Amino acid sequence: MAVADKDEHIKYTYKDYLSWANDERWELIDGVPYNMSPSPTRKHQKVVGELFASIHNYLKGKTCEVYSAPFDVRLFAENVSDDDVTNVVQPDIVIVCDPSKLDDKGCKGSPDMIIEVVSPSTLKRDLKEKFYLYEKAGVKEYWIVFADEKTVLSYYLGEDGKYKRPEVYSEEDNIKVRIFKSLEIQLKDIFQN
User: Which Gene3D superfamilies does this one have (predicted)?
Assistant: First the structure.
């Protein structure tokens, strides 16, 4: 399915999504398809790789697992058939601590943490649409990373089910992963050239 093929009046599902060409990456937000092209930049991929490596090394021997895109996260999908799932995202990094949510297709339900490294083509979606989607889905921690600015916005879900005001971190800071007791990441290592 190409961008020209989508009908904005139709709500697509994960079943539709699985039938689309494998050479393109898509996301569904409330049944609306979004093409994930163009490919990310080298800087974007470097930051994703450094964050993934830090988290992966910490999680060795622990229950939680970390995945990087492309990795399908089917939100609001618990006890729902693929015919009815209308929210499928491919975050840059996903942490899942409940193994029952993992299957061969990815994550079915809300992960514990999502990290998005923004690019010009995804900025609005990451800051607005995905922010509210992840909040509604109950994703405990959500980071929005600005690779060019070497800055991270860290959101944590409060007891009221709403993200609290973000903590803002820059290159010289250490950032605590709040879903874990002892993981702190030095951002100078993540943003190194």
Answer: tt1808, chain A
Element (H, E) at 156: strand 151-156
Closest CA to 179 of 145, 139, 144: 139
Q: The CATH number of the domain where 163 resides is what? A: 3.90.1570.10
pLDDT tens digits for 75-111?
Answer: 998 888 888 999 999 999 999 999 999 999 999 999 9
Number of domains in the chain: 1
| Beta-carbon contacts of residue 145 (< 8 Å; ≥ 6 apart) | 47, 51, 92, 115, 116, 117, 118, 151, 152
pTM over 0.85: yes
* Beta-ladder partners of 113: 95, 141
